[in-house]
Design a protein that fits this description.
Distance between the termini: 30 Å
Largest sheet: 8 strands, antiparallel
Number of strands: 27
Strand content: 15-25%
Radius of gyration: 25 Å
Shape: globular
Bound molecules: 6-O-phosphono-alpha-D-glucopyranose
Length: 608
């Protein structure tokens, strides 16, 4: 989820690359760098921090040259610091690479390359690429790149320059977007149209398995499998700049909702091993012993992350048979809780900066507990403070209302619970069933997104109401809370989430024909019970909107019904939350709200 820009043309490369990085900054902003070919060799400048810091560095130490590559990073492997920033160079500083994606066999490749005399300077998987390409010796560069990429497992969008081949750039793509921009006497490459649009609207989108080789005289697209040239498929970009940074979506929130098949796959990537039979969470290696002897787990979080924590607590008790609960960080930190050293405290946070969650983890540390983080932002305060953790790898979330981070949190919590369960006697059949279900999730989410217009139509039927009830039981109870929170945040409509079972202890008094009651009722263990709660709503004239899974017989009972694919009970929240995100989004838009920047809310609450 980082940004790449490359340039070759008549002008100085550095200012063009810097401008491009500024436009890509929304994709990642913890470190940045560029490499420029100056006719004799490569000049590399890298900084930790925002693009501004790179601009400053270039003022102090300018580079000259008319071709170069640049990158703004959103850390996945390795802390955000200067050494881990891109571009990465090989030992002789003859090859520079910028990379988006994950090299899954980086550890193995690194061992072999070290044996062959390559010296590594960073903790990143990406640096392997620079050494691997250099290890293929002979120019031309594009042949060395294609030979190197044959040895790589994982995903990549890369741009490469060489000290030996002035004004030539090689790009390649597998699973991470890259496009080539054809300007007048200049050629650009970027991970994202927003960096190219100011220069040209004529672009070629690289397909997976393709490579682009270009200099000022032109661009060849090569199929890496056959090593044969393919036709230039030139397309015209119609988006304006702002639309481009939102990937063509009208709001970041909608873009992030639609990114979920990709972000869920990214959370899973490299973590299901052994031919689909086991889970590997590399970030937990150092605390393996504490996890083995843990007698209790407490999740602590705020907002949407707290909802994920509640699902995590249910999961952990079910799969690992270990007492688990979730606490609002803001309450828990002031409560003088009973904490023993064999309690594991897990902070869940998209930003990794929420002040209350950070303080709750500090408290747990002071009491001698092992602390973990389930965090999206690599190198954030909570990630640094905890003893170990699991990163979400969902990419920057910009819409204030959390969407893709939530589904990735549930996925990460499932992986964690399977890991814990395995140590505590969870059967390999059940692990297998869960891993199969996890693997199927991205496609299942895509199937729901393909029917987004049905939710948009539902939103237009409901947008006039001023009060909503959301109900669910079991794993769907936190989904009901999350659905209601989304609607409140985005559309300023009053919405309350309850356990469907608790309805008769109060909320049932609110139900009449003006009250849409949204029931999350997938075919899970709670289904028969929820069914009677739905009948209670209907008997009181409530307008029943049901989200269920396949197959169900709810069409008659419900006034509105949306059905998602089925999966194991604990993963149904990933599927049932997607229509609720879309519903909140569309009601917000229909009511004229600024959904990306809802009033009074902040993306990251760094004060108490
Ligand atoms: C804010 C955001 C929410 C988010 C919560 C926790 O209130 O508006 O969307 O769920 O903070 O944030 P975190 O970054 O810790 O997950």
């Amino acid at each position: 989820m980082c940004g790449i820009i490359a340039y070759v043309g008549p002008d100085e490369a550095a200012p063009v690359l810097l401008k491009g990085l500024e436009r890509l900054e929304y994709r990642g902003y913890d470190s940045a760098g560029m490499a420029v070919q100056n006719g004799r060799g490569l000049e590399v400048r890298r900084v930790c921090g925002r693009i501004e810091a790179l601009t400053q560095r270039l003022r102090e130490a300018p580079v000259a040259g008319t071709s170069g590559i640049a990158h703004t990073r959103w850390a996945t492997h390795g802390e955000p610091n200067e050494l881990n920033a891109h571009p990465h160079v090989d030992t002789a500083r003859a090859i520079a690479v910028v990379h988006n994606g994950i090299i899954e066999n980086a550890d193995l490749l690194r061992v072999e390359l070290r044996r062959r005399g390559h010296e590594f300077r960073s903790e990143t998987d990406s640096e392997v690429l620079a050494h691997l390409i250099a290890d293929q010796h002979d120019p031309p560069l594009h042949l060395a790149v294609s030979r190197a990429l044959r040895l790589v497992e994982g995903t990549f969008g890369i741009a490469v320059i060489s000290a030996l081949e002035p004004d030539r750039i090689v790009c390649a793509r597998k699973g991470s977007p890259l496009m080539i921009g054809l300007g007048r006497g200049a050629i650009y490459a970027a991970s994202d149209a927003s960096a190219i649009i100011p220069h040209t609207r004529r672009v070629v989108y690289l397909d997976d398995g393709e490579m682009a080789v270009f200099d000022t005289s032109g661009c060849d697209i090569v199929n890496m499998e056959a090593m044969s040239r393919v036709d230039l498929r030139v397309e015209q970009i119609e988006w304006d700049l702002e639309e481009a940074s939102r990937g063509g979506y009208p709001h970041y929130m909608l873009k992030e909702i639609h990114e979920q098949p990709e972000t869920i796959a990214s959370t899973l990537r490299g973590r299901i091993v052994g031919g689909g039979e086991a889970v590997r969470l590399g970030g937990l290696r150092e605390v393996a012993d504490s996890l083995k002897t843990a007698r209790r787990v407490i999740f602590t979080a705020c907002g949407t992350s707290w909802h994920a924590g509640q699902i995590g607590a249910y999961l952990l008790e079910e799969l690992a048979r270990i007492p688990a609960s979730v606490e609002y960080a803001s309450e828990w930190r002031y409560r003088d809780p009973v904490l023993e050293p064999d309690t594991v405290v897990i902070g869940i946070s998209q930003s990794g900066e929420t002040a209350d969650t950070l303080a709750a983890i500090e408290l747990a540390k002071r009491r001698g507990c092992t602390t973990l983080g389930i965090i999206n932002t690599v190198g954030s305060s909570i990630a640094r403070l905890t003893d170990a953790g699991v990163y979400l790898h969902a990419g920057p979330e910009i819409g204030v209302a959390s969407t893709k981070a939530f589904t990735s949190q549930v996925v990460a919590l499932t992986l964690f619970s399977l890991c814990m369960g395995r140590r505590r006697g969870l059967s390999s059949e059940l692990i297998h069933e869960y891993l199969e279900a996890l693997t199927a999730l991205p496609d299942q989410v895509q199937k729901i997104l393909d029917r987004a217009d049905e939710i948009e139509a539902l939103a237009s039927r409901l947008a006039g109401h001023d009060n909503f009830l959301y109900l669910g039981r079991g794993y769907s109870f936190p989904v009901a809370l999350e659905g209601a929170l989304k609607l409140k945040e985005i559309s300023y409509v009053h919405a309350e989430g309850f356990s469907a079972a608790e309805m008769k202890h109060g909320p049932i008094a609110l139900i009449d024909e003006d009250m849409p009651v949204l029931v999350v009722a997938p075919r899970d263990a709670s289904y028969p019970k929820v069914l009677s709660n739905m009948q209670e709503v209907k008997a009181r004239g409530g307008h029943l909107v049901t989200i269920s899974s396949e197959p169900n017989g709810l069409a008659e009972l419900s006034d509105e019904l949306f059905t998602v694919p089925h999966t194991v009970d604990a993963l149904l929240p990933v599927l049932t939350s997607v229509p609720l995100q879309l519903l909140a989004y569309h009601i917000g838009v229909l009511r004229g709200c600024d959904v990306d920047k809802p009033r009074n809310l902040a993306k990251s609450v760094t004060v108490e």
